[in-house]
Amino acid sequence: MSADSETISNAVRWACAAPSVHNVQPWAWRLRRGELELRVDRLRSIPVEDPAGRQLIISCGAALHHLRVTLEHNLIEPIVATFPDRGQPDLLAVITFRGRARAMSADAGLFASLERRRSDRRPFDAPPAGSLVGLARHASVFGASAISLSPQFGDMLARAATLAAEEHQSDPAYWNELESWIRSAPTADGVPRSALPDALSIHESASARAFPSGQLRIGHGVRDDAALILLSTVSDTPIDWLNVGQAMSSLLLHATASHLATCPLTHLTEVESSREIVRDVASRSGETLQNPQVMIRVGLEREPSDAVIDAAGSETRIEEHRPGGTGRRPLEEVLTVSS
Ligand SMILES: Cc1cc2nc3c(=O)[nH]c(=O)nc-3n(C[C@H](O)[C@H](O)[C@H](O)COP(=O)(O)O)c2cc1C
User: Fold this and answer.
1) Which residue in 41, 33, 34, 254 sits closest to 146, CA to CA?
2) CATH value of 131-317 in 3.40.109.10, 3.40.50.970, 3.40.1390.10, 2.20.140.10
Protein backbone atom coordinates (compact mmCIF):
# COMPACT_ATOMS: atom_id res chain seq x y z
CA MET A 1 0.00 0.00 0.00
CA SER A 2 1.36 3.47 -0.81
CA ALA A 3 1.71 6.23 1.78
CA ASP A 4 -1.07 8.49 0.49
CA SER A 5 -2.56 11.08 2.77
CA GLU A 6 -5.66 9.00 3.53
CA THR A 7 -3.55 6.03 4.63
CA ILE A 8 -1.37 8.24 6.85
CA SER A 9 -4.41 9.98 8.35
CA ASN A 10 -5.87 6.61 9.15
CA ALA A 11 -2.60 5.52 10.76
CA VAL A 12 -2.67 8.67 12.92
CA ARG A 13 -6.22 7.77 13.99
CA TRP A 14 -4.89 4.41 15.25
CA ALA A 15 -1.84 6.07 16.83
CA CYS A 16 -4.24 8.07 18.98
CA ALA A 17 -5.57 4.86 20.55
CA ALA A 18 -2.37 5.01 22.61
CA PRO A 19 -2.55 5.35 26.39
CA SER A 20 -1.80 8.79 27.82
CA VAL A 21 -1.56 10.11 31.35
CA HIS A 22 -5.16 10.77 32.52
CA ASN A 23 -6.12 10.32 28.86
CA VAL A 24 -5.12 13.94 28.13
CA GLN A 25 -3.92 12.92 24.62
CA PRO A 26 -1.20 15.59 24.44
CA TRP A 27 -0.33 15.12 20.78
CA ALA A 28 -0.57 17.36 17.72
CA TRP A 29 0.14 15.90 14.29
CA ARG A 30 0.72 17.73 11.01
CA LEU A 31 0.91 16.07 7.61
CA ARG A 32 2.58 18.23 4.97
CA ARG A 33 4.18 17.29 1.66
CA GLY A 34 4.59 13.64 2.57
CA GLU A 35 6.07 14.37 6.01
CA LEU A 36 4.27 13.76 9.27
CA GLU A 37 5.23 15.85 12.31
CA LEU A 38 4.48 14.91 15.91
CA ARG A 39 4.46 17.70 18.49
CA VAL A 40 3.69 17.65 22.20
CA ASP A 41 0.67 19.88 22.86
CA ARG A 42 1.56 21.81 26.04
CA LEU A 43 -1.96 23.23 26.24
CA ARG A 44 -2.95 19.77 27.48
CA SER A 45 -0.37 19.61 30.24
CA ILE A 46 -0.96 18.68 33.89
CA PRO A 47 1.49 21.14 35.45
CA VAL A 48 1.00 20.21 39.11
CA GLU A 49 1.55 16.49 38.67
CA ASP A 50 3.96 16.67 35.77
CA PRO A 51 5.78 20.04 35.82
CA ALA A 52 8.59 18.94 33.50
CA GLY A 53 6.19 17.42 30.96
CA ARG A 54 7.82 14.01 31.33
CA GLN A 55 4.52 12.11 31.28
CA LEU A 56 3.25 14.17 28.34
CA ILE A 57 6.25 13.13 26.25
CA ILE A 58 6.04 9.50 27.42
CA SER A 59 2.42 9.55 26.21
CA CYS A 60 3.51 10.96 22.82
CA GLY A 61 6.14 8.19 22.63
CA ALA A 62 3.37 5.64 23.06
CA ALA A 63 1.43 7.27 20.20
CA LEU A 64 4.57 7.22 18.02
CA HIS A 65 4.97 3.49 18.64
CA HIS A 66 1.26 2.89 17.90
CA LEU A 67 1.85 4.73 14.59
CA ARG A 68 4.79 2.44 13.78
CA VAL A 69 2.63 -0.64 14.42
CA THR A 70 -0.13 0.60 12.13
CA LEU A 71 2.26 1.57 9.33
CA GLU A 72 4.10 -1.75 9.52
CA HIS A 73 0.74 -3.50 9.33
CA ASN A 74 0.06 -1.54 6.11
CA LEU A 75 3.48 -2.48 4.69
CA ILE A 76 4.81 1.05 5.07
CA GLU A 77 8.20 1.60 6.63
CA PRO A 78 8.29 4.70 8.85
CA ILE A 79 11.60 6.59 8.84
CA VAL A 80 11.57 8.46 12.11
CA ALA A 81 13.81 11.43 12.97
CA THR A 82 13.37 12.28 16.66
CA PHE A 83 13.94 15.83 17.95
CA PRO A 84 15.10 16.98 14.49
CA ASP A 85 15.27 20.73 15.29
CA ARG A 86 17.03 22.07 18.43
CA GLY A 87 15.15 25.34 18.01
CA GLN A 88 11.80 23.52 18.30
CA PRO A 89 11.98 21.31 21.41
CA ASP A 90 8.28 20.46 21.21
CA LEU A 91 8.75 18.94 17.74
CA LEU A 92 9.27 15.35 18.88
CA ALA A 93 9.51 13.54 15.58
CA VAL A 94 9.31 13.92 11.82
CA ILE A 95 8.25 10.77 10.00
CA THR A 96 8.67 9.98 6.33
CA PHE A 97 7.51 6.82 4.60
CA ARG A 98 8.77 4.07 2.36
CA GLY A 99 6.75 1.18 0.96
CA ARG A 100 7.97 -2.34 1.55
CA ALA A 101 7.13 -5.72 0.13
CA ARG A 102 6.64 -7.52 3.41
CA ALA A 103 6.49 -6.78 7.11
CA MET A 104 9.98 -6.57 8.62
CA SER A 105 9.30 -5.81 12.25
CA ALA A 106 7.73 -8.07 14.88
CA ASP A 107 5.53 -5.10 15.73
CA ALA A 108 3.45 -5.53 12.55
CA GLY A 109 1.62 -8.38 14.25
CA LEU A 110 0.54 -6.13 17.10
CA PHE A 111 -2.08 -4.27 15.09
CA ALA A 112 -4.97 -6.33 16.50
CA SER A 113 -3.85 -5.40 20.02
CA LEU A 114 -4.29 -1.64 19.46
CA GLU A 115 -8.04 -1.95 19.83
CA ARG A 116 -8.02 -4.59 22.58
CA ARG A 117 -5.53 -2.96 24.97
CA ARG A 118 -6.90 -0.92 27.83
CA SER A 119 -5.75 0.13 31.27
CA ASP A 120 -7.22 -2.32 33.72
CA ARG A 121 -7.20 -1.24 37.37
CA ARG A 122 -8.69 -4.44 38.80
CA PRO A 123 -6.61 -6.97 40.78
CA PHE A 124 -4.99 -9.64 38.59
CA ASP A 125 -3.82 -13.19 38.96
CA ALA A 126 -0.05 -13.64 38.63
CA PRO A 127 1.20 -13.81 35.03
CA PRO A 128 2.48 -17.24 33.88
CA ALA A 129 6.07 -17.99 34.86
CA GLY A 130 8.49 -16.87 32.17
CA SER A 131 6.06 -14.53 30.39
CA LEU A 132 7.71 -11.38 31.76
CA VAL A 133 11.20 -12.15 30.44
CA GLY A 134 9.96 -12.05 26.85
CA LEU A 135 8.04 -8.83 27.48
CA ALA A 136 11.04 -7.06 29.01
CA ARG A 137 13.09 -7.74 25.88
CA HIS A 138 10.81 -5.50 23.81
CA ALA A 139 11.75 -2.44 25.87
CA SER A 140 15.42 -2.65 24.94
CA VAL A 141 14.61 -2.06 21.26
CA PHE A 142 13.89 1.55 22.22
CA GLY A 143 16.86 2.02 24.54
CA ALA A 144 14.93 1.54 27.78
CA SER A 145 15.42 -1.22 30.29
CA ALA A 146 12.60 -3.27 31.82
CA ILE A 147 12.89 -5.39 34.92
CA SER A 148 10.40 -7.23 36.99
CA LEU A 149 10.39 -5.96 40.60
CA SER A 150 10.67 -8.84 43.01
CA PRO A 151 7.76 -9.25 45.48
CA GLN A 152 10.42 -9.52 48.19
CA PHE A 153 10.66 -5.71 48.04
CA GLY A 154 6.90 -5.30 48.61
CA ASP A 155 7.44 -3.49 51.93
CA MET A 156 9.73 -0.92 50.32
CA LEU A 157 7.21 -0.30 47.54
CA ALA A 158 4.43 0.03 50.12
CA ARG A 159 6.55 2.69 51.87
CA ALA A 160 7.02 4.47 48.52
CA ALA A 161 3.25 4.35 47.98
CA THR A 162 2.63 5.86 51.42
CA LEU A 163 5.09 8.70 50.77
CA ALA A 164 3.56 9.44 47.35
CA ALA A 165 0.00 9.31 48.78
CA GLU A 166 0.97 11.68 51.63
CA GLU A 167 2.45 14.18 49.21
CA HIS A 168 -0.56 13.97 46.88
CA GLN A 169 -3.15 14.10 49.66
CA SER A 170 -1.66 17.22 51.20
CA ASP A 171 -1.80 19.09 47.90
CA PRO A 172 -5.26 20.43 46.95
CA ALA A 173 -3.87 21.64 43.60
CA TYR A 174 -2.94 18.02 42.74
CA TRP A 175 -6.47 16.82 43.56
CA ASN A 176 -8.14 19.67 41.65
CA GLU A 177 -6.03 18.87 38.61
CA LEU A 178 -6.73 15.13 38.86
CA GLU A 179 -10.48 15.69 39.34
CA SER A 180 -10.56 17.95 36.29
CA TRP A 181 -9.67 14.91 34.14
CA ILE A 182 -12.29 12.54 35.65
CA ARG A 183 -15.47 12.14 33.56
CA SER A 184 -18.90 10.96 34.72
CA ALA A 185 -20.27 10.56 31.17
CA PRO A 186 -18.50 9.28 28.04
CA THR A 187 -16.34 12.05 26.55
CA ALA A 188 -13.49 12.45 24.08
CA ASP A 189 -10.80 12.75 26.75
CA GLY A 190 -10.18 12.19 30.47
CA VAL A 191 -10.69 9.06 32.55
CA PRO A 192 -14.30 7.81 32.78
CA ARG A 193 -15.56 6.72 36.21
CA SER A 194 -16.44 3.39 34.56
CA ALA A 195 -12.69 2.67 34.35
CA LEU A 196 -12.02 3.48 38.02
CA PRO A 197 -12.63 1.37 41.16
CA ASP A 198 -15.66 2.33 43.24
CA ALA A 199 -15.42 3.83 46.73
CA LEU A 200 -15.41 0.42 48.45
CA SER A 201 -12.58 -0.88 46.31
CA ILE A 202 -10.30 2.15 46.46
CA HIS A 203 -6.88 1.60 48.05
CA GLU A 204 -7.20 -2.18 47.70
CA SER A 205 -3.84 -2.34 46.02
CA ALA A 206 -0.82 -0.45 47.33
CA SER A 207 0.58 -0.40 43.82
CA ALA A 208 -2.28 1.69 42.40
CA ARG A 209 -2.76 5.46 42.15
CA ALA A 210 -5.66 6.74 44.28
CA PHE A 211 -8.31 8.26 42.00
CA PRO A 212 -11.67 9.83 42.84
CA SER A 213 -14.29 7.13 43.28
CA GLY A 214 -15.44 5.34 40.11
CA GLN A 215 -17.99 2.71 39.12
CA LEU A 216 -15.80 -0.36 38.76
CA ARG A 217 -16.97 -2.84 41.39
CA ILE A 218 -14.13 -5.04 42.55
CA GLY A 219 -15.12 -6.22 45.99
CA HIS A 220 -13.56 -6.09 49.43
CA GLY A 221 -10.01 -7.15 50.20
CA VAL A 222 -9.47 -9.03 46.94
CA ARG A 223 -5.84 -10.04 46.61
CA ASP A 224 -3.80 -8.58 43.78
CA ASP A 225 -1.10 -10.88 42.37
CA ALA A 226 -0.08 -8.59 39.51
CA ALA A 227 3.61 -8.44 38.64
CA LEU A 228 5.26 -5.03 38.51
CA ILE A 229 7.58 -4.20 35.64
CA LEU A 230 9.67 -1.06 35.86
CA LEU A 231 10.94 0.81 32.82
CA SER A 232 14.13 2.84 33.37
CA THR A 233 16.42 4.94 31.19
CA VAL A 234 20.09 5.98 31.12
CA SER A 235 19.36 9.67 31.57
CA ASP A 236 16.29 11.78 32.24
CA THR A 237 15.86 13.94 29.14
CA PRO A 238 12.98 14.42 26.67
CA ILE A 239 14.67 11.91 24.32
CA ASP A 240 14.64 9.30 27.12
CA TRP A 241 10.96 10.07 27.79
CA LEU A 242 10.01 9.67 24.12
CA ASN A 243 11.96 6.39 23.96
CA VAL A 244 10.48 5.01 27.15
CA GLY A 245 6.99 5.85 25.83
CA GLN A 246 7.71 3.73 22.75
CA ALA A 247 9.10 0.93 24.92
CA MET A 248 6.02 1.10 27.17
CA SER A 249 3.68 0.87 24.17
CA SER A 250 5.60 -2.11 22.79
CA LEU A 251 5.46 -3.88 26.14
CA LEU A 252 1.75 -3.15 26.63
CA LEU A 253 0.80 -4.34 23.14
CA HIS A 254 2.92 -7.49 23.35
CA ALA A 255 1.30 -8.23 26.74
CA THR A 256 -2.16 -7.71 25.21
CA ALA A 257 -1.25 -10.06 22.36
CA SER A 258 -0.32 -12.64 25.02
CA HIS A 259 -3.71 -12.17 26.73
CA LEU A 260 -2.21 -10.36 29.70
CA ALA A 261 -3.96 -7.43 31.37
CA THR A 262 -1.94 -4.27 32.05
CA CYS A 263 -1.98 -0.81 33.60
CA PRO A 264 0.77 1.83 33.42
CA LEU A 265 1.55 3.55 36.74
CA THR A 266 3.46 6.75 37.42
CA HIS A 267 2.33 7.85 40.88
CA LEU A 268 5.55 6.44 42.45
CA THR A 269 7.93 7.89 39.87
CA GLU A 270 6.51 11.44 39.71
CA VAL A 271 7.20 12.19 43.42
CA GLU A 272 10.93 12.47 44.20
CA SER A 273 10.82 10.76 47.65
CA SER A 274 9.01 7.66 46.34
CA ARG A 275 11.03 7.66 43.10
CA GLU A 276 14.19 7.37 45.22
CA ILE A 277 12.81 4.21 46.86
CA VAL A 278 11.79 2.79 43.48
CA ARG A 279 15.34 3.48 42.24
CA ASP A 280 16.71 1.57 45.26
CA VAL A 281 14.32 -1.38 44.71
CA ALA A 282 15.28 -1.43 41.03
CA SER A 283 18.98 -1.54 41.74
CA ARG A 284 18.48 -4.33 44.34
CA SER A 285 16.52 -6.18 41.62
CA GLY A 286 19.48 -5.91 39.23
CA GLU A 287 18.66 -2.73 37.31
CA THR A 288 21.74 -0.72 36.32
CA LEU A 289 19.96 2.30 34.83
CA GLN A 290 19.34 5.10 37.32
CA ASN A 291 16.17 6.76 36.05
CA PRO A 292 12.91 4.95 36.84
CA GLN A 293 10.18 6.24 34.53
CA VAL A 294 7.03 4.10 34.43
CA MET A 295 5.82 0.97 36.20
CA ILE A 296 3.44 -1.43 34.53
CA ARG A 297 1.12 -3.78 36.40
CA VAL A 298 0.83 -7.03 34.45
CA GLY A 299 -1.24 -10.09 35.16
CA LEU A 300 -4.01 -12.41 34.16
CA GLU A 301 -7.52 -11.04 34.06
CA ARG A 302 -9.77 -13.08 36.35
CA GLU A 303 -12.91 -14.63 34.99
CA PRO A 304 -16.07 -13.16 36.57
CA SER A 305 -16.98 -16.51 38.05
CA ASP A 306 -13.53 -17.13 39.54
CA ALA A 307 -13.41 -17.56 43.28
CA VAL A 308 -10.51 -15.77 44.90
CA ILE A 309 -9.14 -15.91 48.40
CA ASP A 310 -9.06 -12.53 50.08
CA ALA A 311 -6.37 -11.24 52.42
CA ALA A 312 -8.28 -12.61 55.44
CA GLY A 313 -8.36 -16.09 53.92
CA SER A 314 -12.05 -16.25 52.99
CA GLU A 315 -13.45 -16.93 49.53
CA THR A 316 -15.03 -14.15 47.49
CA ARG A 317 -16.28 -13.94 43.90
CA ILE A 318 -15.02 -11.48 41.32
CA GLU A 319 -17.80 -9.11 40.33
CA GLU A 320 -18.79 -9.18 36.70
CA HIS A 321 -17.52 -5.71 35.89
CA ARG A 322 -15.05 -4.77 33.21
CA PRO A 323 -13.38 -1.37 32.99
CA GLY A 324 -15.12 0.95 30.57
CA GLY A 325 -13.29 2.06 27.42
CA THR A 326 -11.88 5.58 27.27
CA GLY A 327 -12.77 8.20 24.62
CA ARG A 328 -10.47 9.74 22.02
CA ARG A 329 -10.42 13.26 20.57
CA PRO A 330 -11.70 13.55 16.99
CA LEU A 331 -9.02 13.23 14.31
CA GLU A 332 -9.70 16.77 12.98
CA GLU A 333 -8.72 18.16 16.39
CA VAL A 334 -5.33 16.44 16.53
CA LEU A 335 -4.26 16.24 12.86
CA THR A 336 -3.71 19.13 10.46
CA VAL A 337 -3.30 18.19 6.80
CA SER A 338 -1.80 20.91 4.60
CA SER A 339 -0.32 20.95 1.12
C1 LIG B 1 2.54 8.21 31.05
C2 LIG B 1 1.30 7.53 31.60
C3 LIG B 1 1.07 7.52 32.97
C4 LIG B 1 -0.05 6.87 33.50
N5 LIG B 1 -0.20 6.81 34.86
C6 LIG B 1 -1.23 6.10 35.39
C7 LIG B 1 -1.33 5.92 36.80
O8 LIG B 1 -0.48 6.38 37.57
N9 LIG B 1 -2.38 5.20 37.28
C10 LIG B 1 -3.31 4.64 36.45
O11 LIG B 1 -4.24 3.98 36.92
N12 LIG B 1 -3.24 4.81 35.08
C13 LIG B 1 -2.21 5.50 34.55
N14 LIG B 1 -2.09 5.63 33.18
C15 LIG B 1 -3.13 5.07 32.32
C16 LIG B 1 -4.03 6.17 31.73
O17 LIG B 1 -4.91 6.67 32.71
C18 LIG B 1 -4.80 5.58 30.53
O19 LIG B 1 -3.86 5.26 29.54
C20 LIG B 1 -5.81 6.54 29.94
O21 LIG B 1 -6.84 6.80 30.86
C22 LIG B 1 -6.43 5.97 28.65
O23 LIG B 1 -7.06 4.74 28.90
P24 LIG B 1 -6.62 3.38 28.19
O25 LIG B 1 -5.20 3.11 28.57
O26 LIG B 1 -7.57 2.35 28.73
O27 LIG B 1 -6.75 3.57 26.70
C28 LIG B 1 -0.99 6.25 32.64
C29 LIG B 1 -0.75 6.27 31.25
C30 LIG B 1 0.39 6.88 30.74
C31 LIG B 1 0.66 6.83 29.27
Assistant:
1) 254
2) 3.40.109.10
Residues framing ligand 1 (Cβ under 6 A) = 19-23, 55, 58-59, 62, 118-119, 121, 191, 209, 263-267, 294, 326
Between CA 165 and CA 50 the distance in angstroms is 15
Say how many CA atoms lie within 13 Å of 123 toward its Cβ: 27
- Cβ atoms of 296 and 262 closer than 8 Å: yes
**Backbone CA torsion sign across 96, 100, 105, 111:** positive
Q: Which residues pair with 265 in a beta bridge?
A: 295
Q: Which residues pair with 295 in a beta bridge?
A: 230, 265
Q: Residue 6 and residue 101: Cα distance in Å, rounded? A: 20
**According to DSSP H, which parts of 79-171 are helical?**
111-116, 131-140, 154-169
Ligand 1 centroid to 231 CA: how many Å?
A: 15
Could you read off the pLDDT of 194-246 as tens digits, one per residue? 999 888 775 555 578 889 989 888 777 778 899 999 999 999 999 999 999 99
Hey, which residues does 28 pair with through a beta bridge?
A: 39
User: Ligand 1 center to residue 119 CA distance, Å?
Assistant: 6
Rounded to the nearest angstrom, the gap between the alpha carbon of residue 47 and the centroid of all alpha carbons in its chain is: 19
Domain 5-117+327-338 has CATH 3.40.309.10: no
What does the domain layout of the chain look like in residue ranges?
5-117+327-338, 131-317
Distance of CA 66 to the CA centre of its chain: 12
Per residue in 75-105, pLDDT tens? Answer: 999 999 999 999 999 999 999 999 877 777 7
